[in-house]
Amino acid sequence: MDDQVTLPAPRADWALFLDFDGTLVDIAAHPDAVAVSPELHELLRTLTQTLHGAVAIVSGRSLDGLDALLNGALPAMAGIHGLERRDGRGQVYRPMDRTESFAEARAALSAFVEQHPGTTLEDKGNALTLHYRGAPELAGEAEALLRTQCEALGEEFRLLRGKQVLELKPAGHHKGTVVEAFLAEAPFAGRTPVFLGDDVTDEDAFAVVNRLGGHSIRVGTDRPTAARYQLESVHAALQWLGSLSEQID
Ligand SMILES: O=P(O)(O)OC[C@H]1O[C@H](O[C@H]2O[C@H](CO)[C@@H](O)[C@H](O)[C@H]2O)[C@H](O)[C@@H](O)[C@@H]1O
After folding, report:
1. Pathway involvement (predicted)?
2. How many CB atoms lie within 10 A of CB 93?
3. Of 19, 21, 199, 204, which residue is the catalytic one?
4. To pair with 87 at 20 to 30 A between CA atoms, which of 49, 80, 115, 219?
């Protein structure tokens, strides 16, 4: 992994894919507590202009959750770790609604959260997310619960781990598959993919971008990664992104 000094020289033919939490905004105590500044909205608009629309957010949050935070600043976005996607023209792609499949897991997780202060359930409909940032000592118990629920759901579902968070979602889509879906169509097709992310679920996208000859950039330096470059922090990522348009013009 190279360091920040040797980040790739920005080019007008890039397709830029950006993770959200831990990449564009600092991690906060609660999902609703992240600070999204007007400057971030402006940055996303400027990058989208510079790269002729080839900018997408690729997040674990839902599309609705992202829109609420970003005021629709970007048309192209992927939510729930690649499960749902909105393309550059605003067309939304969602797989079959599995909300009902989660009924039992939803009840079990709700009961857990009620009994364990400091934990939160984020219900995304097609995925269930259990946060334990407010009670990190419950990591083991939470993991055991989610494992049991995932086994009960069967092979069509997966358990994902993130930053003090565990998530149940349908299998078959991840951040790598959704980057490939964007790259198959305008305005992303034919461009060099560049992915910025911080979390374990971003590793799927790093692997795809590396295979396609693009640039993978990890935000954070605290664990091994397949990313070829690194930026130290959200602050460093925002500074670098802020300099791209000037460097490309
Ligand atoms: O793929 P991302 O955009 O990085 O989304 C991953 C998860 O991010 C959110 O949870 C994380 O950020 C929260 C706010 O800073 C923090 O409280 C939590 O501990 C982190 O795990 C989001 O709430 C999840 O839905 C996303 O899957």
Report:
1. Glycan biosynthesis; trehalose biosynthesis
2. 13
3. 19
4. 219
Told to judge if 199 belongs to the known catalytic residues of this protein, a careful annotator would answer: no
Contacts of 207 (CB under 8 A, 6+ apart): 176, 226
Q: Which domains does the chain have, with CATH numbers?
A: 4-95+173-248 (3.40.50.1000), 99-170 (3.30.70.1020)
1 has a pLDDT exceeding 70: no
Instruction: Please provide residue 91's backbone torsions phi and psi, each rounded to the nearest 5 degrees.
Output: -75, 130
What is the Cα–Cα distance from 166 to 73, expressed in whole angstroms?
Answer: 28
**Which tens digits make up the pLDDT trace of 83-98?**
999 999 999 999 889 9
Q: How far is residue 77's CA from residue 49's CA, in Å, rounded to a whole number? A: 16
Which ipTM value was assigned to this complex?
0.98
pLDDT at 4: 45
**CA dist list (Å): 127 to 137, 139, 141, 198:** 24, 19, 20, 21
Tens of pLDDT, residue by residue over 195-226, are 999 999 999 999 999 999 999 999 999 999 99
Q: CA 131 to CA 145: how far, in whole Å?
A: 13
